[in-house]
Design goal:
Elements lengths: L2 E6 L10 H9 L2 E4 L16 E4 L2 E2 L2 E2 L3 H12 L4 E6 L9 H10 L3 E5 L4 H8 L13 E5 L10 H6 L4 E5 L5 H10 L6 E6 L7 E6 L3 H8 L5 E5 L5 H18 L2
Parallel strand pairs: 1-6, 1-7, 2-3, 2-6, 8-9
Antiparallel strand pairs: 4-5, 9-12, 10-11, 10-12
Helix pairs in contact: 2-3
Length: 254
């Protein structure tokens, strides 16, 4: 029976992928891969595997979602194992459910191999925890833009909470997002933007809600990037400052 396998490629670093995902890539007859899936992962494929780029990211769509759905059906009628390789985790803003629905409606078996989401891994790569005891009790993962192109209404709800807020696909809405957080008294809340997280080209800018937009502009940050807003952003700096003081005291006491 033909099978569609949706695989999470992780946040960018090709080593941050599961063993199960690698095993599935080795058996694929066709791989349809996204823009945020590291192409180094294609080295695990069979030599005769068909590899087709179907990438989508802000401002650059190689194929529409309906065209991708049609490709899934077309390849599934000819090959036994079709893989959709998606950046991060397929179920975190990956449109996986749309592809599962179209496949199952055609009688195609579906399997999902979860991946490490950039919403968790990218902050962690910079020593930013999304939760820390005594600092916050929860975190939100929100998309910056809805299907209609408008800013998500959940941004306003998140801005009223004490949670860490991780916002994906939102660089085009950054200025408006900072305005919303400022309206809810969060102008002084620490914020960070990480571009190309977990990759050698990674860039990070930190600041506060009131100035992070201008800092990001000055640094030339753009997509793909994630936005993190919350007191946890300040923790790595506090730790570094604490270690610096301890080292100074050690030097003085020698």
């Amino acid at each position: 029976m033909t099978k569609l396998v949706l695989i999470g490629a992780g946040p960018g670093d090709p080593e941050l992928i599961t063993l199960k995902a690698i095993r599935k890539l080795k058996t694929a007859d066709v791989i349809l891969y996204d823009a945020l899936a590291n192409e180094e992962l294609l080295l695990y494929c069979k030599e005769d595997c068909i590899k087709q780029f179907v990438g989508k990211r802000y401002g650059c769509h190689a194929l529409s979602q309906s065209e991708i759905n049609n490709l899934i059906l077309e390849y599934s009628s000819k090959y036994q194992c079709v893989v959709r390789l998606k950046g991060g985790d397929p179920f975190v803003f990956g449109r996986a459910w749309e592809e599962i629905t179209i496949a199952r409606s055609a009688g195609i078996d579906v399997e999902v191999v979860p991946g490490i989401s950039s919403a968790l891994a990218v902050p962690a790569s910079q020593m930013i925890p999304v939760t820390a005891r005594g600092t916050n009790e929860s975190f939100w993962v929100v998309t910056g833009t809805t299907q209609s192109g408008d800013i998500s209404g959940d941004i306003k709800l998140a801005a009223q909470s004490t949670a860490t807020v991780v916002i994906l696909m939102a660089m085009s809405k950054l200025e408006r997002i900072t305005e919303i957080f400022t309206q809810y008294g969060k102008a002084e809340t620490p914020a960070a933007i990480i571009q190309n997280g977990t990759l050698p080209s990674e860039k990070i800018v930190t600041g506060k809600v009131k100035d992070i937009y201008f800092r990001a502009q000055y640094a030339g940050l753009g997509n793909p990037a994630i936005i993190i807003i919350g007191n946890v952003v300040a923790l790595p700096g506090e730790l570094a400052a604490d270690n610096h003081i301890k080292n100074m005291l050690k030097t003085l006491n020698r």
